[in-house]
C-alpha cells in the first residue's frame, strides 16, 4: 500500500503542438480494485458508500464528485477516489462485506491515466485502438478494455461535450501509450472521420 | 480477422483482443493411475478438424474471461459462443452450425 505518491510515469514528456486533441495526464488518481459478486447487496451498498455511486452496469462508467467507478469484468470494478482516501475506502469495503465474499485492493500506483479531449479525440483513438469509435457505438459513460497499440488498456468516455476520454494503462507502458498518441496526434493528419457522425 | 462477441461482457471485438485456448471439451483423466499412452493422448493428441470445431477462447485484452466458441475452420464462420462450464456443445448451437454449413453446400468435416 502506498504511503507517498509515486512520480509521474510521464515525467519529461510533453504534449504535442498542433494536435487534433489535447493530451494530459490525470496524475495521482486513487484507484482500488474490487472483485466479487457484483449483485451481492452488501457489496452494492459498500460500493455506494465508498464512492457515492452503485456499481455501474456492464461496460459502463459512473462519476460521483471526485469519485467514480469503472466496470472492468463481470466480477470486477475499478473504483476511483482521491489518492489519499483510498486506504480508508478499501477498509470500508472490507469491513462492510462478508469475510471472503469480495476483495478490495489499493492499485493507485499500478496504472496511469491519460486524458484525450477535444473534437479530434475520437478520431485519434480510432487510430490506436481496434474499437468502433463511432458515436453510435461508443458514447459518454461507455467503457471498453482492449489494446492501445500493442498494450492492454481501458478506454472510458467521461464527457460528451467537450468530448473527453480517459485511457487506463499500466504505468510501465504509459510512456509508450503517450508517444503512440503523439504519433496519432498531428492536426494535419486528421480526416474528419466522425465530424458528421 | 474474426469478429467475436464475448458472452461474458457482451462486447464485440477483434480477434486480436482474444486468445485461442485450443480444442474444447477434452475430458480430464481420472488422476493418479493413468497409462502413459492415455496421458500422452490427453496432453497432445487433438482432432484438429477441417470444418466444424469447438474451441476455448479467452477475452484476453477485455474482460479476461474464458468461454467456448463454435466455428468452421474452413470458412472462419462463427456459429455461436457459450459458457465455459458447458461439458458439451449446446444442441441449439450444433443445430445452427449444421444448418449453416449445409446451406453452403459443405460437409460437416472435410478430409485432410
Ligand atoms: Zn469479455
Summarize the structure in words.
The complex is a heterodimer of chains A (197) and B (112). The longest helix of chain A has 11 residues, at 41-51. With 197 residues, chain A is α+β, with helices and mostly antiparallel strands. Chain A is built from four helices and ten strands. In chain A, the strands form two sheets. In chain A, strands 1-7-10-9-8 form a five-stranded antiparallel β-sheet, with helices on one face. Chain A has a five-stranded antiparallel β-sheet with strand order 3-4-5-2-6, with helices on one face. In chain A, helix 1 (41-51) runs antiparallel to helix 2 (86-96). Chain A folds into two domains: 4-27 and 110-186, Probable tRNA modification gtpase trme, domain 1 (Gyrase A, domain 2); 29-106, Heterotetrameric sarcosine oxidase (Alpha-Beta Plaits, 2-Layer Sandwich). The model of chain A has no long low-confidence stretch (mean pLDDT 95). With 112 residues, chain B is α+β, with helices and mostly antiparallel strands. Chain B has one domain: Folate-binding superfamily (Folate-binding fold), CATH 3.30.2270. Chain B is 20% helix and 30% strand. Chain B has two helices and seven strands; from the N terminus they run βββαβββαβ. Chain B has helices at 36-44, 91-103; strands spanning 3-5, 12-14, 19-23, 50-58, 66-72, 78-82, 109-110. In chain B, the strands form two sheets. In chain B, strands 3, 4, 5, 6 and 7 form a five-stranded antiparallel β-sheet that branches. A two-stranded antiparallel ribbon of chain B has the order 1-2. In chain B, strand 4 and strand 5 form a beta hairpin. The radius of gyration of chain B is 15 Å and the shape is globular. The chains are: A alpha+beta (197), B alpha+beta (112). The A-B interface holds A 58-59, 72-74, 76, 130-131, 144-147, 152 and B 8-11, 13-14, 16-17, 61-65.
